[in-house]
Amino acid sequence: MGDSYNNVPDQVLDEPRAASPASCEPVDTAAGAQACEVPHPDAGSASAGRTAAPATEAGVPLQSLGAEWQAYRDALAAYARAGAAALAPNDPRNAVPASLRPGRHAVHHSYIWLGGLSAVGAIMLVMILSSAGSIMSMVEGGMPVFIALAASAGIGLLTALVVGAVVFAAQWLAWKNLSYELAPTEFSLFSGIVNKKRRHVPYQRIQSVNQQAGVMQRVLGICDVKIDTAGGAANEAVTLRYVRTSEAEALRSELFRRKKVLLAGGALDEFGTAYVGGTVVPSAWMIACAGGDARSAQIAFGADPAAADMSLEQACSCVGTPAEGNLLDGADELLNDMRGVFGGQEVATGAVSYEAGLSNKELFFAGLSGAAGHFGVIIAGIIGLAGTLAQFFESNIEAWVEGAMAGVSADASLPAQGAAALGGLFGSFAWQVALWAVVSVLALWAFSVIGTIVQYGGFKVRRREGRIEVEHGLLQRTFHGIDVDRVQTVVVKESFVRRMFGYCELSVGKIDSAVQDSQDGAPQARGMVIHPFVKTSRVPDLVGGLLPEFADMPEQTVRPAPVALRRAIVRKGVIRSTVFWLMVGAILGRIGLEAGLRSGALAIDAGMLALCETAFAAAVALFIIAFALNVVDAVLWHRSSVLGYDSSFMSITNGGLSKTTAVFPRKKIQFGYVKTNPFQRGAHVAIVNARTAAGVGGITEQLWDVPEEEAARWLEWVRPRTVASANGAVRANGAAPADEAAAANGAEG
User: Fold this and answer.
1) What is the Cα–Cα distance from 540 to 649, expressed in whole angstroms?
2) Which segments constitute the YdbS-like PH domain (predicted)?
3) What pTM was computed for the model?
4) 72-115 pLDDT, tens per residue?
5) Is residue 24 domain-resident?
6) 177, 198, 219: which is the final residue of a domain?
7) Closest-CA residue to 28 (of 16, 19, 41)
8) Would you say 125 and 156 are in contact if contact means Cβ atoms under 8 Å apart?
């Protein structure tokens, strides 16, 4: 059977059922004889015995069958139900992943030993660090070093055995009480040793199914699965840890399949067989129990024989656009082919219509831009390193300061003493320190670039049926999948570094859960990145392949008012500028220091005065640079910021040194409003705000200082309205009106 059961075409759910024929000949294959002990009924009984009265199976309406076919269906269901718990090693149904079989399923047994090792390792690390002080105390008390180390090692080993036993016992109990089940209408997760807990996840509410595997997990072929239901800030995603890779792939495909069936108004039975509009689509498990004879399984569960002509051999193939590659793709493909120790066979999860990757150039620039985002961490690391080195070279630093102060004349004035001390501080030793600092920054930057490149190794983004999938990571593999109907916005971000090369970051805004996606627990505010470094000119083609539903960007015609430039300079350069207020504080501090020195209320030596002068000079230089950048940012913002809207879509662009464009359907806008303060009312401008459900709790896209009349026109457009008013609002915006159906769709929500 292999993996072909996953390739049943989605068109089955959409085709109308054909008329019932006069006769039907069931398929009886050799595989069926081996795998299924249930005898097939005669061919003619399928249609001859069919009556008009419907039957039901687990609440699912079925067509009445002849007596032989009813007996076959009952026997097939009993065989499927009885054999799901334990299969013989030579049973062909073993080809079906455990996650697609009926009943409850346990996660992989690595939950016990790998999870236990992780917990024990963390505990032992803390114990080793804490025991260092005890060893030093014993040595200072006169105990020989060897004896102190031996005693500490013995106590540590005994403690490790006790702690390990407790941890592994707890992990085993947790594993025994952890299971999941795919019911006809919901996914259920069971957990708890003493206090039992069951979490219900209706299939219709599933937004994304993501996978993540660390280095050790990837070697073993296991991963963590997160099922995101997009319930906002009060909702937490359901996480399954330590699942085999093949079972995770099959589970992801099955969850989206069941969601699609229920959203189409269909139903599912206990085995996952789908019933939509008279069409019957047997589940992978039921097909396996029927010996691979999908047609007989369809007829047995109510399909018309003429419509039951969709066999597994007629499954659609994967047709996609070849993705660009880079040097790391070969290594990533090798790791994927290895699948890990427990990974199992690769599971086909649907047809791919579009796929894109990273070229060598894009991968390199993605590493550079990613490292730029870690600049603050690099500087913090340098400061921490400087503090550590200062402790080791305290005597050198004291000699450096004393040497600098040796040339200061005691008879000179305080400002002259400060200038002389300042010049002495920047001697040869200071330049050596600066050189080492620069080398350290460059080294950390290089490591950050390499880490980011490895993080994006094997990057692929694809459109698979109704989903967008993104996976990347050469060592730690991350997979994100999201339904297209859950996408709220398409965001194009052009940071300063990316704009220098004509590139941008492409992401989508989605409804996030309260559980954070990043490993350190920080919010993932930018949504799901679908391309980290793409040529700006390629964005329309990429969006057209991945999200054709968002490809029609409206023409942007509404710009900030002329007075908005002056207001932007004041807002960015003064009101919202942290550096400006630091400069104000530095000036006040300088005035207070001089007043104290002149009055004699303060007594300060030349070295401290030099440090104060240095700090003030740095503040002045920082203010001049920051104010100039803020003015440039305000001018660029005024020139490139714009919004547009038509009958169905809206887009907002906020420019500056960096530039962000957000595109979203009108029906995704939760509410819109116009906001003004007294100064804006005097300038006859307003802030346009459009709220979507993206992120945790929603995100507001806004454009400042739009002319009042344009803001009022937009507010009329966003208000729920009739078809006639929709066309009128579009005409008022200067765009050609769409047909009435499109305008009506745009007026919804």
Assistant:
1) 15
2) 175-254, 459-512, 647-717
3) 0.73
4) 888 888 888 876 666 777 777 888 888 888 889 999 999 999 98
5) yes
6) 177
7) 41
8) no
